[in-house]
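--- STAGE predict ---
source: upstream dedup step, 1 unique chain passed
mode: sequence only
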Amino acid sequence: MKDIDRFFADVLISLGDKPFVRDNHKNRFLNCACVFDIETTSFYQSKTNPRLQVLKPSPKDEDDFVKSAIMYAWVIGINGRTIVGRTWEEALSIINRMVKTFGLHGENSSDSDEDNSQNAIIYIHNESFEFQFIKDRFKWSEVFALEPHKPLKATTVDGVEFRCSYLLTGYSLETVGKNLHKYHIKKMVGDLDYTKFRHAKTPLSPTEWRYVRNDGMVVMAHIQEEIERLNGIINIPLTKTGYVRKYCRDACLYEGGHRKNGLKWKKYHDLMLALQIKSELEYTQLKLAFQGGYTHADGFYSGKIVFNVTSMDETSAYPAVMINEKFPCGTGEIVKPKSKKEFLDYLKRYCCLFDIELEDVDSTFIYDHYISSSRCWDSRGMVTDNGRVVRAKMLKMTITEQDYLIMLRTYSWRNMKIRNMRVYVRQYLPTDLVKAIVKFYKDKTELKGVEGMEVEYLHSKENVNSCYGMTVTDIARDEIKYMDQEWETIPKDLATVISKYNLSKNRFLCYQWGVWVTAYARKNVWSAILECAEDYVYSDTDSVKTRDFEKHKPFFDKYNAEIMVKLKRASEYHHIPLEHLMPKTKNGEKKILGVWDFDGYYFKFKTLGAKRYMTLSKKGYSLTVSGVNKSKAIPWLCKESARMWKEHHVVMTPIDLFQEGLSFPPEATGKNIHSYLDYEQSGIMVDYLGNECPYHELSSVHLEATGYDMSLSNDYIDYLMNIMEEYQ
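--- STAGE serialize ---
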């Protein structure tokens, strides 16, 4: 009790006499960094013996055990001070004390005479984890989630608002610690062995207690830096995209801090009113046409070591097309072309969106295949290359004119039908938006490595990366609610959502723009794929990897010259100095937006499909496998290589071992399976020291380290076998 009294006394002194700030709705928020973090133990609990727990049962005993998890330590931080404990009763008492100390209450709370709320925001790094433990321990007034089990924020009836700092930063705790610039705290790594069972009575060493506190301190330091940078906790957005969204909205709509009734706001709002989604069908077509960046491997090289590979990368590819290319800037109009000539004329003059049905489709470019099978909403007789269409008896999909022009160069077909064709006036994005993007890119380039400008560089880099993301936010995302201890998905009424979207006075973006951003980016990367042809090895969104680079260098030089022409046109249209589109680094190196740039040279390159490749360069081995931590996987591969020689006298380098059928063990992946347990569990935990302690969890998350199999799908194996037979 004395520790609690002292903790809150110190917090109150540190906050001074004005601890709250008001938002635009006159709700009050505690203006300081608050955090909550827990440490847990996962295990399998015997169904018959409450004192028997195992890390993982043998296959023959699996039916006798259930997955379980318990919390054994927690940390709560307020304004740089931390307090730790072991039980839920202790943690909840601190939260309740916080409510009473600061007079927290929800809006229209029965405990308050005020209509507006008085809140405290408590950040949790990866809130989806902690929320699963606390969801049945509080009464909630609102839970805002992106999908079930993944809340962005959850507010109690008492005005305690838990927010996710992982979705705010997009970084692991270790990276957040490395990026701190004022309150320097590094995450402690590797001090807790999670395979050891711990409970609320397990003694923790000073080092282990430092680990518990440290996680909270890292998040608290980051939030405090943001409070100071943004002049108040109310200005911190929910997600990392929120930073750039707010800046760009202000740039487009505000004039000297005022929007409504301003000429600038009216002009931009009129533009938005002219850029509406006219129907549910149009919205559905846009959703179907949207695809991400193109990522794929040339099947001829899959599973083989390729020597002397050069990687070329487009400089800020998505921001580049947002500046260089033209986008839908008017309401879509339905057209019915009467001839192929008229159809092609529409493609040339407008941004086009349409449903297409093709019969007897066959690839004419053997080194890669553009059409994604997952984007075909109807098909028959399809043969695929790792998710990409090689041939089909029939397929139906929704595409843009950019997709069609690539398909025209890479496929043949017998019959084509076009339906629901919409055309949009093609124009540059609004100048105010473009100027904001240019500023982010210019700052990112000029501030990199400049002493004393680390914070500004970090945020400009994040802003550049987020410019595209804000354009493709789904305007009709299902509403996710947590009610009566259950997650519920409620589809939005599409007509209502579209009407609200069209008339919104705060809107400064159009969903159509995001659809064409990635379409243009795919066009650009495919121009390089088509050029490299038999030398092409792999592509990923804004990069290509190719053999015999010197043979293809004239293409890249010509492409870059064409980019310069586009940059000049855009700069003249927007009245932006051309040098802002090609800023210089601190060393005087010019970084031209959107050009192909040298990104690396590999002595050896090996791919097993999209997002699966390994390289050897002068820097050593590198590994890219979605879901595998390369810092753990590469050392394991090196050890396996040494073991193969020692035990079998077989020379197998790490890149030789990287092949179909390879299984990374759990310790080599850094990957955990999350199992959300939505039921109460009780028992008597026996920790790794032999100490017993009763436990009772209302809900929890079981974590289990898992391996990763480098197996190929049967369809992909069949395709690889066929091309070897056909082209050998």
